[in-house]
Design goal:
This protein is 53% helix and 0% strand. With 74 residues, the chain is an all-alpha fold. It has a domain of 47 residues. α1 packs antiparallel against α2. It is elongated and about 50 Å long. The N and C termini lie far apart (34 Å).
Length: 74
Amino acid sequence: MSARPTRKLQVTAGALRVRAYPVLAECVERGVAYGYQRAHKHTDAPTADDVREQIERAVLNEICDAFEFPEDYP
């Protein structure tokens, strides 16, 4: 697997409309790949829980990098 891409997705308000689903799908795809790679970084046989945790963390990080949430968001 390749290293985590450094390109960030930028969404701009105004006259442009963003197709959120493709952006979100790309975040999930990159997050899963990076999380899986990260789970195997220091061990050849990570536990299923370790793999799930790393994938979940990476997917959420990708989403938070691409989307801006209001401060009062639950």
